[in-house]
Amino acid sequence: MEQNERIIAMPTAANLLGDRELVTAAVHVAGADDATRAVQSVLQHYPDLEQLAAATVNEVAALPGLSSTVAQKLLLMVELGCRAQSRLAVRHGKVVSAGELGSTMIRHFAGRTYEEMLILYLDVKNQIIKQETVSVGGIESSLIDQRVLLRKAILYGAAQMIMVHNHPSGDPQPSSADISVTQNVLEASNLVGIALVDHLVIGSTDYVSFREHGYI
To answer: Which of 17, 71, 182, 201 gets the highest tally of CB atoms within 10 A of its CB?
Structure first.
């Protein structure tokens, strides 16, 4: 049986396939003339598939065995997968633990090449009322307006908040700016009686919880 036939026969098992099998299937679907060569090229140049997600059409099209059309189709499939994965973030569910939320957010930010800050607004039972992006590109204090965050928390009837942001470098260790911004939000939230439950910094395979590490 052809490799792509196996994928088509078992679509629900896609998450069980290895990187080579997924790339092989995608290259076949994209219509590469020499699929074997194309797969080898992709895996040699992008052994970490996060790098493939950040590649341009011209960069991929320059690889042996791939044309511009095949590269465009391949990257469209990659982008579709990235968007679908990012939207698996907890929405209107219940936050049970930092570990569960951290694992979910690692999937949410997978392949993200820029920094993004999310705020989860919760009720008293840890049920998510609203999830919002409050900054993109950096966590500097100037980009995080505590008054806006708290105004929205009151508007949504939230009793608690969780801050979540990623480090595109893959290292989840908090920076001095992360700690400073968190302290500012914590002090402001305490004044109005809305609890800042945690701040998670998300890396490529791990996360850091401010609550678990004693920062708040």
So the answer is: 201
